[in-house]
Amino acid sequence: ADEALRKSEKLAAAGRLAASIAHEINNPLEAVTNLLYLIHQEQKDSPAQPYVELAEAEVARISVITQQMLRFYKQSTRPARAEVCALLDSVLSLHERRAAMLQIDIDRRYCSEAPLFCFTGEMRQLFNNFIANAIDAMTPGGGKLVLRVQRVRQDAKTGLAGIRVTVADSGCGMSQETRRHIFEPFFTTKEDTGTGLGLWVSAEILAKHHGRLRLRSWERGAGTTHASQRGGTVFTMFLPERLEHELHGEPA
Ligand code: ADP
Fold first, then answer.
1. CB atoms within 10 A of CB 144
2. In this protein, which residues make up the domain named Histidine kinase (predicted)?
């Protein structure tokens, strides 16, 4: 446990450092983005136009990375009471079109009420990371995304009351080797599109809410039964109901 704590403190320190670097990079990056845009507009007939477009795409990618780091580390707003199912739905609405195009079937198994006192922006970001990853895992080829929300009176591990959220996909799954690294910053298996920050940020957001995460994953084609041949991943998180002063009392 000590080892795990040291590791997570190290990661948090690395994260703060990365965020301050991201902050420094952001202004010149914005300048470069604007300059590239001007060049793009001015040199529409230039043979160098494809290079300008490539440069724009690469700069946009850097931008995504710095934004992601900054969004997490910027001063949090005050925590508030939220409805977990509504938060999930607001995130889902961002992905519905893409999911439909990919023939991903979305199954919502919500309980009627799931109130949670939390940092809502970060909670939304957390859900977004899991849902985006699930959809990526089912691209192309489609599949099924199951979102389950349950109210738990007494969590088996912690004995606390809270909300359990499950995000399950029938996608490619992960190898054991991949599973070992997914919470490290910048670890990604998506060469062109990944930042490797999603799960790292998610773990930090969960820790801030005293939440717990469980992961099960089967690699596609790895098992002998029909289900395991198909592959898939299940993330289950438990978010304890906290007294308001507990979250308020925490440094943001
Ligand atoms: P990114 O999505 O940018 O790669 P993440 O930190 O969100 O960064 O995820 C890290 C890696 O974890 C992914 O590249 C992928 O290999 C693996 N992963 C995460 N979620 C899933 C999932 N639902 N199914 C399969 N692999 C996943």
1. 17
2. 20-243
